[in-house]
Design goal:
With 351 residues, the chain is an alpha+beta fold. The chain has ten helices and twelve strands. Bound molecules: dinuclear copper ion (CUA).
Length: 351
């Protein structure tokens, strides 16, 4: 291979890698869905095992490739009549290459098993003392509900809020099929299994200096039907004070808007069928039928993080949910333009 061709191959490989990873892995931005910038004790524990394995395997790769290169160079054919020295087994080497992998696996298993134990702390005492924030997570086709039993049972859809520095306990349920809860920077990808409750425990780090909170992205990681790829969510990690502020703000009902269009939208909300599944009462889980819409005007995204929460997107969603999220259980209510416009004004007035 000519030097120029080799350079071209190498640059193409690096470019392909950058494209495939969306450059996220290379830049480690805050928005990246990466496990490599962990923000919790749980994430760091998994990450440390990951790096240990990477270092060991990288070392093995270098040694094996080095020996291969050396053998290729040292024992290359000099004449067609040359026959290599004929050997039949070597007991010492047999023992060596059996024992070495065993030792390596034992070395890797120690932090792995320790990490598994540490990921399942016994928090019963702490919970009894009120030192744990328990959040009930329910996966649905295709959105997530988060309920806070310790905070008047407030419910929010697709946005999980947690305080930094406090033990958090997620109770993972599903309302229908198998889903998987995964916010990479929080660590721990875990299935939501019908008929079973799974758990994740973690303690999140403080948001970056000078910030009250940081938003992390996540999504369902188990194929669960038509819109699995659109089942996204956000995690907001707050400072403890900011978390209390958020809870108190969320608990309080949104102020009534004086806008007549919003008032008309509220009437539509009550009469067109929306309240059969949705609620604007922050503590009304409605049996997890549909995302709770309290303070919807303050949300940055809609339709399980599918779209930015703009009037245009909300209007398109209300006109035809299935067009934006195939298979969505929200029916097309065949609302007319006036009804949609009023509903958009009403929902965006809920702050
Ligand atoms: Cu839920 Cu994939």
């Amino acid at each position: 291979m000519s030097a120029r061709l080799r350079l071209l191959t190498l640059t193409s490989a690096v470019a392909a890698l950058a494209v495939l990873t969306g450059c996220e892995w290379l830049t480690f931005s805050n928005e990246a869905q990466t496990t490599m910038v962990p923000m919790t004790d749980l994430g760091r524990s998994t990450d440390s095992v990951y790096w240990l394995v990477i270092y060991i395997t990288a070392g093995i790769f270098v040694v094996v490739q080095g020996m291969l290169m050396y053998a290729m160079w040292r024992f290359k054919e000099t004449s067609p009549d040359d026959i290599p020295e004929q050997v039949h087994g070597n007991l010492q080497m047999e023992i060596g290459w059996t024992l070495l992998p065993v030792i390596i696996l034992v070395v890797i298993s120690v932090p792995t098993v320790k990490g598994i134990w540490a990921a399942q702390p016994d928090t019963a005492e702490m919970e009894a003392a009120g030192e744990v924030v328990t959040i009930k997570v329910v996966g649905k086709q295709w959105w997530f509900a988060f309920q806070y039993p310790d905070y008047d049972d407030i419910v929010i859809g697709n946005e999980i809020h947690v305080p930094a520095g406090k033990q958090v306990h997620l109770e993972l349920h599903t309302g229908d099929v198998l889903h998987s809860f995964w916010i990479p920077r929080l660590g721990g990808k875990r299935d939501l299994i019908p008929g079973k409750v799974n758990h994740i425990w973690f303690k999140a780090d403080m948001p970056p200096e000078g910030q009250d909170s940081i938003t992390l992205l996540g999504q369902c990681a188990e194929l669960c039907g038509d819109s699995h790829a659109l089942m996204r969510m956000q995690a907001v990690v707050h400072t403890p004070e900011d978390f209390d502020r958020w809870v108190n703000g969320y608990k309080a009902s949104a102020a009534q808007s004086s806008d007549p269009l919003a008032a008309a939208g509220q009437q539509t909300f009550l009469s067109a069928g929306c309240i059969a599944c949705h609620s604007t009462d922050p503590t009304n889980a409605q049996a997890y039928l549909a995302p709770n819409l309290s303070h919807f005007g303050s949300r940055t995204h809609l339709a399980a993080d599918r779209l930015d929460n703009t009037p245009e997107n909300l209007s398109a969603w209300l006109h035809n949910p299935q067009a934006l999220k195939p298979g969505a259980t929200m029916p097309n209510l065949n609302l007319n333009d006036q009804q949609v416009e009023a509903l958009v004004a009403y929902l965006h007035s809920l702050k």
